[in-house]
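pipeline: protein-struct stage 2 | run 1193 | Maspardin
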Amino acid sequence: MKGPFSAPGDYIYFKSQVPLHKIPIGTKQWRYYDFGPKVVSPLICIPGTAGTADVYYKQIMSLSMKGYRVISVDIPRVWNHHEWIQAFEKFLDAIDVHHIHLYGTSLGGFLAQLFAQHRPRRVRSLILSNSFLDTRSFSAAMPWAPVVSWTPSFLLKRYVLTGIRDGPHEPFIADSVDFVVSQVETLSREDLASRLTLTVDAASVGPLLLSDSFITIMDTNDYCAIPQQLKDQLGERYPEARRAYLKTGGDFPFLSRPDEVNLHLQLHLRRVGVEARPDLIQGISRGGSGASPSEENDKGEDPDDPPKDDGEATKDPSTDSQLHPAPESSESHSLDDQLLSNARVDGLMPLHGS
């Protein structure tokens, strides 16, 4: 990264409009954003080792303006995968959300699959980006894993950053790398040690009760830190999943190719039955909920019903705020125009290498 990092203008605007939440749940501290109509079943974004809740700010801004609810979380300080599953379930209980759609990138995609395996009634669909099925290859590449919890912060940061491909990059990819590097600098030694421990803790994803038709695999075809062999294994596990290919984007396409990623996320949510509520956007005001009492969740609903608009409402309605378009954003294209110009979706097609 050349020169000092300067936060993008749209990120500064996002921070001025969308509140960051920090809540203790048990012994874990959760840091997250929650934005959009509370009556809509949420898309929850889980980052990779180097990410934070902030890396999905472009998804929060775009999808919430279209009437979707987006929650973006930091991976909490947990030290094994069983602890992750229990902590995430407690988090969902605390914010009064039951049925969810998970978007996970890299380690976040792995954690999303584990949660879907062990808590199948809660997960209605998955979007997996540059992800994997087990941790064996990472464990083999990190022989010093047993001492990671005692390793100094600067060494942990150096190790995480060496996994991010160094330039030269095209400008949008270079900007995405700079942003993620700036986020890594905000992480504590314990946060980094926890995430690296999750990466090497012996675990693999078992069979999911979730049908492949409710899974989208969204990968970049240029390069990323996850070896192609691991991405191929993921595709073989879910042969009937919908494929979304991004020609370029690097490790962080949600930042470098946000229009394409947001389009694929929107197409996925539509396909699995999530009904956006753009009619509630203008009714959302700072400090007030966009949901009326009649739109609150029916707690008697069968959790195994097919995916639909589940209608959760959080205990904290102040998380809803009206988000006006950022000065530099452009939302004038129709979904069909974006699809033709930005995206290629191949249904029921075998996953191939770059």
